Amino acid sequence: IPLAYVAFDDRVLSEFDPAYKLSPPLRHRRQVEQLHQFLQDGTIQVLTTGHRAQEAESKDLDFVVSAPGMLGLQTYFALSYQSLIEKNIIDLSRWVELSSLNPRAILKLPPATIAVGAEAEITLFSPDIQWTFTKAHLFSPAVNSPLLGKTLKGKAIGIFAKGRWHSA
Hints:
By secondary structure, this protein is of the alpha+beta class. It has helices at residues 4-7, 29-41, 56-59, 76-85, 92-106; strands at 122-132, 151-161, 164-167. The longest helix has 15 residues, at 92-106.
């Protein structure tokens, strides 16, 4: 399930901010609480970024005619941490299962391991870092995030893959 559907409910739509326009639309608080239960009991096996970039021209419109979609990649850990882990909906180990282990298993990819001689693929993150999400964190012309300008807690620090370090 895309993270936005368990992080936000339809109350954020009261001001008709196109940044929150998704397809399908965000749901009522009670439905989101049911999705939280499904994350806890294993009914939902995968949590995704739900990353659907839109250029400013398609979002800088009235809510009704704006394109659906929300950035999710750059804020995935922070939003997960603040909306699920800090609120005790799931713990960090369950988040790792939902975000990494289960998707690999479903796709029949070998488990990621850290071993001498093996090529490392690892993401480092810190739940303690507070940061403000700005346009400087974006890697494309897309700006469709309701989190722009917000102070977030939790941050991906970087990724080590294919023998190289990539700062987040």
